[in-house]
Amino acid sequence: MEFDEELDALGLLCPLPVLKAAKRLRAMAPGATLRLVVDDPAAAVDVPHFCKEQGHELLKSEERGGLQIYMIRRSGSDQES
User: Fold this and answer.
1) Distance in angstroms (rounded) separating the CA atoms of residues 44 and 75
2) The Cα angle at residue 39 between residues 33 and 51, in degrees rounded to 5
3) CA distance 53 to 48
């Protein structure tokens, strides 16, 4: 799956992966796709919740070798917090 930007959040614990993803997504164009790579087990709950609350589309999530990989499409709104 293609993506516009990638964020390596390995070694970061909750809530840092989501906070860094939010900051990166705000800087991206609406409709752009972020690939987020994390190893914090809490991200399995935090990332989908964040996407739902902020209106971003969680295109895909997968686990590979202890890593979680999320593909997030930025919402068309600039109202995220």
Assistant:
1) 20
2) 40
3) 9
Alpha-carbon distance values, 37 to 49, 76, 79, 80 (Å): 16, 23, 24, 21
DSSP letter (8 states) at residue 26: H
Whether 7 contacts 21, CB under 8 Å:
yes
pTM: 0.92
Does residue 38 sit in helix, strand or coil?
A: strand
Catalytic residue among 14, 22, 32, 71: 14
Tell me, what's the pLDDT at 75?
A: 96
User: Taking residues 7-26, what's their average pLDDT?
Assistant: 97
Concerning whether 14 is annotated as a catalytic residue, the answer is: yes
CB 43 within 8 Å of CB 18:
yes
